[in-house]
Amino acid sequence: MLSQPEPIAPPSHIRLTAVMPCLNEERTVGVCIEKAFRAFRSMGIAGEVVVADNGSTDSSVELASRLGASVVHVAKKGYGAALAAGIAAARGDYVVMADSDDSYDWLELMPFVAALDEGNDLVVGNRFSGGIDPGAMPRLHRYLGNPVLSWLARKVHGAPVGDFHCGMRAFRRDAFLRMNVRTSGMEFATEMIVNSVKAGLRIAEVPTRLRCDGRDRPPHLRSFRDGWRHLRFILTYGPNYLYLAPGGISFVTGLGMVAALVRGPITVSGHYFGIHFLALACALTLVGFNIINYGILAKVVGLRGTSVITSRVARWAMSRFSLEGALIVGASLVLLGVGCDGWLLFKWLNSGGVPMESTVHTVFAATLAIVIGVNLSLGAFLLHMLVSETRS
């Protein structure tokens, strides 16, 4: 039987707020609240519990209120939406968040608080170093989903975190504002870490044990739907890997092939490379150029909400990009292409309209120059608009 917790401290100064998202957790939310209050007492600190209820239809809300927790009613559905509302209501200098299903031990708050006291802004639990009880995590998540997504997120975003999806973590309340977390679903956990890296915050990990939850129903997490949401966020906000790397490879490869084939077919080691390979080369060059263009735009868009510019591409766009310079280059490419086509048209008219198969390679290259020139000029206007808005 759970009892009303004793008051921890006067509400004038709260050191630590425990935030618990909740959706029909009457079997376990009381245990979690009681453990959080016991942890506050054992550490001798002032603490509060905030339960962010996401539309429970059982007795979760009544139970939480009876045990001394503050209840925030969150109409917008989603794990991230519930947490964001709970964090907004927090009064503590530090905030610790974890599920209310008793899968994380709310008694083990000291390592998180100690890491924050050492100057870290965000402290993330690591279940793989802390231990996972048998049956606490599905095999698909344990051996494939979590390791792969965490590895990819570390690779793409450079975050020093081994377990991106651990639901137990703590942070300074003022640091959370700098994270600028906006997603409302399960990807909230990934965005918190990625944005902390972008904002230059100090991140640490502590071993955290994952136990079997106390639910009598399936979890809210959906493996493929929520896994895709994490993957989507990792790639969307990783323009180096989504845009610049593949775009650069495509552009350089295509441009090299164009340079080799622009004057006509060639033979290499007995293999004939003609007009079909030039068409492929032009396609690779144009696709690569457009992907790079998207990547630069994504870099600038990603600067919104952060004062720290870690990307060299973004730094170049913000400080050295010139609309006029880009327009000069774009116009030059268009004039070059039009000039080549005009010269070939003049030759064809002078010859009486005879076939000119030998000039097909030149026509391909001229057309490529025109298209890239037009794309560069129009893209430069869009980039200039984004840069101007971001600077202001």
Structural features, described:
With 392 residues, the protein is an alpha/beta fold. It folds into 2 domains: 16-236, Spore Coat Polysaccharide Biosynthesis Protein SpsA, Chain A, CATH 3.90.550.10; 239-391, no CATH class. The protein is 54% helix and 11% strand. The chain contains 14 helices and 9 strands. The strands form 2 sheets. The chain has a 7-stranded mixed beta sheet with strand order 3-2-1-4-6-5-7. A two-stranded antiparallel sheet has the order 8-9. A hairpin with a 2-residue loop joins strand 8 (266-268) and strand 9. It is elongated, with a radius of gyration of 29 Å.
Topology:
Layout: E1 16-22, H1 29-43, E2 47-53, H2 60-66, E3 70-73, H3 79-88, E4 94-97, H4 110-117, E5 122-126, H5 127-130, H6 139-157, E6 169-172, H7 173-179, H8 188-198, E7 203-207, H9 223-236, H10 239-261, E8 266-268, E9 271-273, H11 275-301, H12 312-319, H13 323-350, H14 360-391
Parallel strand pairs: 1-2, 1-4, 2-3, 5-7
Antiparallel strand pairs: 4-6, 5-6, 8-9
Helix pairs in contact: 6-9, 7-8, 10-11, 11-14, 13-14
Give a brief rundown of this model.
The protein has 392 residues and is an alpha/beta fold.
Query: For the CA atoms, what is the radius of gyration?
Result: 29 Å
- Helix content bin: 40-55%
Shape: elongated
Please state roughly what percent of the residues sit in beta strands, choosing from under 5%, 5-15%, 15-25%, 25-35%, 35-45% or over 45%: 5-15%
Helix count, per DSSP?
Answer: 14
Average of per-residue pLDDT values:
91
Count of beta strands: 9
Q: In what order do the strands lie side by side in the largest sheet?
A: 3-2-1-4-6-5-7
Label the structural class. alpha/beta
Quickly count the domains.
Answer: 2
CATH topology name of the largest domain, in short, is Spore Coat Polysaccharide Biosynthesis Protein SpsA, Chain A
